[in-house]
Every structure is written in structure tokens, then in C-alpha cells.
Amino acid sequence: MARGKGIDGSMSVPAFYGKELRWKREEAGLSLDAFLKGSFYGKTYLSDIEHGERRIPLDLAQHADRMLGTDGFFERNCEDVRKARKSATAEYFAEVLELEEHAREVEEWDPSLIPGPLQLPTYVRAVVLASHPTYSEEAVREKIEARRKRAWLFEDQEAPESWLVLHEEILTNPILPPGDMAEQLAHIAEVTRKHRRSIPQILLRNSGAHPFMMGATRFLTFADAPPIMYTEGMYSGQLIDDPALVGQYSKAYGRLRAAALPPEASLRLIEQAAEDYRNGKHPDRLE
């Protein structure tokens, strides 16, 4: 067997360590199944890592060192892989960006902003400059292009199914002029109805105390790996992969969905807000 065949380790940091992992595994005479025994991961997940398409998580790096007797090599270098990121992407979001390409389902809570892949260029610009007012025009352009490339998450028929809970404030506290806000909200409704990859719900501002009274949160589930949760602030983000903790948060997300409006009523509310802005009227707050 030609070890590492078809893998170019010079392409990226993840590809380099992925190729090394495959070489060591095959040198030890271990099949994918044999190597993964005792871990929570599937063969497709490992194959993606070996081809540099996924970053190796810390627990799998530790598993590799135990199985292959590599004296902590993969664990020590796991940080290099974690830091490797794509252009125009914040370091703390790079791993999430990669993981969402393999997700089977995405559940999201957004208390103040429209989800990134649904943001149109004008909206992206406003968000980027609000948190990074000194960015050059080139840097802003790169951010816009990077975010718009993720539109496939809601428009591709092979994209993961998405469930979105959005706060009413996103509709009634506009961050754009009325015409641009109308276009942005109409875009959400159009993508939702046309592609049917996402289900939106609106949480009303008078819903009282509810789970996730904090920053944006996302859950990603996979066919071949444990689910993860990601929560984000303005300049930082955190991945949570502890199964018990993710499970606890997931139950709370279920309660959040129960507190929000039904999907069709939510979609009509988004469409009505878009129409109001289009006609120069500020959408009413719902009581």
C-alpha cells in the first residue's frame, strides 16, 4: 500500500498533519476501523482529517498518540492545526467554518443579528464596520466575500437542515436604512420559501425570561461524530464538545423553540416587516 497516496501535505497545515497521521496509521498496519476503536468518531471523519479537509480535534489527537505510540506528537501539534485558518476568517471561527461543511443539521439562536450566511453585502458591511471601524476597504471587501461564500448553507439542496430562532429586535431595530432593510428581510423570506433548507422562528421581545439570554449560539450535528455547540461574542468564540454539556444546552434550545412563534407565523412576520420598510413604515413591535 502506498502510504499517504493522493495527499499533498504541502497544501496546508491540516493536510501536513493529516498525511502524517495516515502514514503512521498505515505503518502500524491499522485499518480505519481498527484505529478508531475506542473513539467517538467515524471512518468518514477520519478520512477527511487524513486528507486535510478537517482539523484534528484534541481528543482524537490524544487517541492517535495512544494507538500509534507517537509520544504526544499529534497532541503537541494539534494547536498548529487549530490555528491554521482560512483568509478573512477570524481564528476562533475557523474550525466552525470547516465543521459546518460536514454538518447534517444546524440549529441557531441569534439575539441581535441575522445569521451570517443570510446577510447581504450591505448588512455585512454595517456589521463589520460596527466592530472594526478602522478596517481598510480591502479588508471589509474580503469579509463580505467570505461571508457571502457561506450562502450555500441556506441555498444548496445538499446543505444541512437549519433551524433558526431569531429575536424580534432583529426586525424592529434596523441597522440599515429602510430600503436596504426591506431588501435584507425579503431575502431571508425568499431563500427560506424557495430552497426550504431552513425553518425560522421569531422570539417576541415580551416573551419574558428564556434560555440563551446571551450571545449567538449554534449547534451542529454530524452523521459520523459527536454534536458540538458554538457560542460567540463580538471578538471571541468558544466550541463546546463535552457530550453531557452539549446535551444540556440542546434541551435548553428545545425550550427556546417552544417559546418562539410557529415557523409560518414567523415567516409572515419577516415578510410583513420587509413590506413595512419598503413602504417607509417602521414595523410595529408585537405585544
Structure in words:
The protein is α/β, with parallel strands linked by helices and 287 residues long. It folds into 2 domains: 13-83, 434 Repressor (Amino-terminal Domain), CATH 1.10.260.40; 95-278, Endonuclease, Chain A. It is built from 13 helices and 6 strands. It has a 6-stranded mixed β-sheet with strand order 3-2-1-4-5-6, sandwiched between helices. Strand 5 (228-232) and strand 6 form a beta hairpin.
Per-chain topology:
Blueprint: H1 13-27, H2 32-36, H3 43-50, H4 58-68, H5 73-83, H6 91-99, E1 105-110, H7 121-131, H8 137-148, H9 152-155, E2 161-167, H10 169-172, H11 178-195, E3 198-203, E4 216-221, E5 228-232, E6 237-240, H12 243-259, H13 263-278
Parallel strand pairs: 1-2, 2-3
Antiparallel strand pairs: 1-4, 4-5, 5-6
Q: Tags for this entry?
A:
287 residues; alpha/beta; 434 Repressor (Amino-terminal Domain); Endonuclease, Chain A; 49% helix
Short description:
Helices cover 49% and strands 12% of the residues. It is of the alpha/beta class.
